[in-house]
Design a protein that fits this description.
single chain; alpha/beta; eight-stranded mixed sheet; about 55% helix; disordered N terminus
Length: about 550
């Protein structure tokens, strides 16, 4: 065993030896607190056995509790097992409880048929059968032997000669690649983070850990601690039980003076909250009134949060729904605009660099955006006139923009849903003090939010489907389209004027505009490409504002 154990003389000097009455009274006090469920509300002293999978934890648990836990079985390694040893007059007996995380009360497990075999040669087999049945009850129809659960199996051993002691055996730690790695570490962390736990087999800087070497017949290569075995007072399960009990007693002695004020403080807080809950609601009328009151309170708070009136929730930034939604939409608008500007940018200045009209076609279609539109138009030629654009052209071009746009929209929806869920949690905390009512109401609203989110994503997918096309009811669409088209003509005319600064006085910008318009009227395909580019730009400008 490790060197973290305080010497026995030192322990006894503190009045916490194994046999004095004060120690037994303290143990019984802590066990009573465990029995009535105080551990759910405050940290109580406890013994915890942790270690890697297949490190021999079951063997140690068997030796300490004197119960025949199966050492080569996976039954007890899939959930936490809490064993309470209690000194009790009368016949030796077992009690089994199944503590599920979400349940308010523990489930009592009938062990009468196994108690009859207590202490007999058949007890080992019967005890194994009992654990197997308890495991089936915990996991139900699941058959995957690697599954872990947060449910705890509580075993109470009543004997007239046993000292009072509770020890918790946790599932073994496994490698990060194992499917149950995270669950195992969560279970272990939940117990060892209790500062009043006495831990076996976990290296720790604090003096609340007992290290032990197990499976001495299977020496690991490279192990350097075998030379420490020549210490008779630290060898054998008897010395382990003594050292374990002494350390646990010391932990209890340190904890008890602090527990009373903690429990009193939690109790006063509980009484205050209970008084605020008013009278029990036993009739349907009282229950209906309670739900109406909850709905009214939640509606008022959520309406304020939606309207941006934050005076009632000033201290809860997560509840500011209007701000969260506006931030999400502003982010969506910015990302969409940046994405579109990269895909369909505005036509650059100096697109025409020559006065020779014979070169204008090649210069115009040298622009990437116009060239891509021209290619799509050529690929979708149908029965339209030369100056018209096939209806499928805009559909194809729009579909090309769907991929980046769809991802941005999906991210925006998920972001707003996350904010709404946080808001629901905060607002429901303000709407009612009843923990059970708040939990169930929050769960119901969360399910409604999930259903709404699913419908929203379905609507988004339909909008971005293959049959989608550009359309808008904005009355500004035609006006903006004509204005942007004329702006392009004006910019091209200015480019041409800038090519002959010495002749600017004789050939005006208006004359160049007429020249460009005349050329476009004789090159219907290039004109159609330009107008298609304008329609895409205007549609996005309207949609993003």
């Amino acid at each position: 065993m490790g060197d973290n154990i305080a010497p026995e003389d030192e322990m006894n000097e503190a009045g916490i030896g194994l046999g004095d009455q004060d120690t037994l009274n303290r143990l019984q006090f802590i066990e009573r607190l465990h029995a009535i469920g105080v551990a759910r509300y405050t940290d109580l002293p406890q013994l915890v056995v942790v270690g890697d999978q297949n490190s021999g934890k079951s063997s140690v648990l068997q030796a300490i509790t004197q119960l025949p836990f199966p050492v080569n079985d996976t039954v007890c390694t899939r959930f936490a097992t809490e064993v309470s040893l209690r000194r009790s007059p009368g016949l030796e007996s077992l009690e089994l409880l199944i503590k599920r995380t979400a349940a308010q009360e523990s489930e009592r497990f009938d062990v009468s048929e196994y108690n009859s075999a207590f202490g007999s040669p058949e007890f080992k087999t019967q005890f194994g059968n009992m654990l197997a049945r308890a495991s089936d009850n915990i996991f139900g129809p699941r058959v995957n032997s690697t599954d872990l659960t947060e449910t705890t199996l509580h075993i109470t051993v009543n004997t007239p000669t046993q000292i009072n002691l509770t020890i918790v055996d946790l599932p073994g730690l496994v490698s990060a690649s194992h499917s149950s790695s995270q669950m195992a570490r969560t279970l272990v962390s939940r117990h060892i983070e209790n500062p009043r736990s006495t831990i076996l087999n976990i290296p720790d800087r604090e003096n609340r850990v007992i290290g032990f070497i197990n499976k001495c017949d299977r020496k690991q290569e490279g192990a350097d601690h075998w030379g420490e075995l020549n210490q008779p007072t630290k060898l054998g399960i008897s010395n382990l039980r003594s050292a374990l009990t002494r350390m646990h007693n010391a932990q209890i002695a340190r904890a008890i003076p602090l527990l009373s004020p903690e429990i009193k403080e939690r109790l006063e807080s509980c009484k205050t909250r209970r008084a605020q809950l008013r009278q029990p609601r036993t009739t349907q009328r009282e229950q209906r009134g309670c739900m109406i009151e909850l709905a009214s309170s939640f509606t008022k708070l959520s309406t304020d949060a939606l309207d941006g009136h934050y005076h009632n929730i000033q201290d809860y930034p997560l509840a500011r729904i209007r701000k969260s939604v506006r931030d999400s939409l502003d982010g969506f608008q910015g990302r969409v605009q940046r994405t579109f500007d990269n895909i369909v940018p505005e036509l650059p200045n100096n697109i025409l660099t020559s006065l020779d009209e014979n070169s204008w076609r090649n210069l115009m279609l040298a622009d990437r955006s116009l060239r891509d539109i021209h290619c799509v138009r050529q690929e979708n030629r149908g029965r339209e006139f030369p100056d018209e654009v096939n209806q499928n052209v805009l559909r194809v071009l729009w579909a090309a923009e769907i991929v980046p746009w769809f991802g941005v929209a999906t991210s925006c929806i998920d972001n707003m849903v996350g904010h709404l869920q946080s808001s629901i949690n905060v607002l429901m905390q303000q709407a009612t003090l009843d923990d059970e009512l708040r939990t169930k109401s929050t769960q119901w609203l969360s399910e409604v939010l999930q259903d709404t989110t699913k419908l929203t994503h379905e609507e988004l997918s339909q909008l971005a489907g293959d049959d989608s096309h550009i359309w808008t009811l904005s009355p500004r669409y035609m006006t903006l389209s004509r204005a942007m088209y004329n702006k392009y003509i004006t910019n091209i005319a200015r480019d041409l004027v800038s090519l002959t600064p010495d002749r600017a006085a004789t050939i005006s910008e208006r004359e160049r505009e007429n020249q460009v318009k005349l050329w476009l009227s004789n090159n219907k395909d290039v004109d159609a490409v330009s107008e298609t580019h304008v329609r895409l730009r205007v549609y996005y400008d309207i949609a993003s504002k």
